[in-house]
Amino acid sequence: MADVEKKAATAGKPKEPKPKTKKGLPVVPESVLKKRKKRENSRIISLHKKLTALANRKKKTREIFIRAEKYVKAYRAKERDEIRLMREAKKRGNYYIPGEAKLAFVIRIRGINRVAPKVRKTLQLLRLRQINNGIFVRLNKVSVGYFYVVLLISLSLCINPFLSVSGKQNIICVEDLIHEVFTVGDNFKYASNALWPFKLNNPTGGWRKKTIHYVEGGDFGNREDKINKLLRKMV
């Protein structure tokens, strides 16, 4: 009796269509095919991006080596010219005077106790917020005015006009950054701001006298090329 009722109940329901087959294989739904095609396209695009990035990396590496060699040749040629001019001047009994410095390295060696607000603002503009912070600065009328304000209030800074170091702004490597800073090029401001202020240590052996000028046996003031010796002690 139960079997008869079950057959009668199922007889009224429409039969579900069987999935169509092709050559004895079930047909794959369209949604599954779309997902497969999407995954395949994504894989192809990802592979293409990787190959393109690899080619660009190789091209960039080659460009970096070419630029580095060009900078080395330019620096050596400039050094040879300086030596040649010095020798020629010596032969003629004259003195060779190099061009005015364009680059300075500034180090803050004192705190802010009893410092006027104008000097504090100047230190903020120079990004010298902590003791022993150092930055590269382009020497011009404005920067020299900053140094005058700071030195006038007896806040110690060390200036090096003759410091020697052998994308978007066409700076793609460390060599470009060093070249831009060393030559004080058109993108010097961008290159200088890209560098954080250098955090140096106290010099080996300590300071002599921070409140006395360097020419009087102290520490603050313009050391010219003598600051290289100080930097070696502070690195």
Features of this protein?
single chain, 235 residues, alpha+beta, Ribosomal Protein L30, Chain: A, 2 domains, five-stranded mixed β-sheet, two-stranded antiparallel sheet, 7 helices, 7 strands, 50% helix, transmembrane, ribosomal protein, Ribo_uL30_ferredoxin-like_sf
- The gyration radius over C-alpha positions equals 36 Å
The biggest sheet amounts to:
5 strands, mixed
CATH class of the largest domain: Alpha Beta
Q: Mind telling me which CATH architecture of the largest domain this is?
A: 2-Layer Sandwich
Protein name: 60S ribosomal protein L7
GO molecular function, one term: structural constituent of ribosome
Domain Large ribosomal subunit protein uL30-like ferredoxin-like fold: 104-144
Region (Disordered): 1-28
Written description of the protein model:
By secondary structure, this protein is α+β, with helices and mostly antiparallel strands. The chain has two domains: 33-99; 103-232, Ribosomal protein L30/L7 (Ribosomal Protein L30, Chain: A, 2-Layer Sandwich). Helices cover 50% and strands 10% of the residues. It contains seven helices and seven strands, in the order H-E-E-H-E-H-E-H-E-H-H-E-E-H. The chain has helices at residues 2-11, 30-91, 117-125, 141-152, 174-183, 188-194, 227-234; strands at 21-22, 25-26, 103-108, 133-138, 157-159, 198-199, 221-222. It has a five-stranded mixed beta sheet with strand order 6-4-3-5-7. Strands 1-2 form a two-stranded antiparallel ribbon. A hairpin with a 2-residue loop joins strand 1 and strand 2 (25-26). The protein is elongated and about 95 Å long. 14% of the residues are buried. This is 60S ribosomal protein L7. GO terms for molecular function: RNA binding; structural constituent of ribosome. It holds the Pfam family Ribosomal_L30. InterPro entries: Ribo_uL30_ferredoxin-like_sf, Ribosomal_uL30, Ribosomal_uL30_euk_arc, Ribosomal_uL30_ferredoxin-like, Ribosomal_uL30_N_euk. Belongs to the universal ribosomal protein uL30 family.
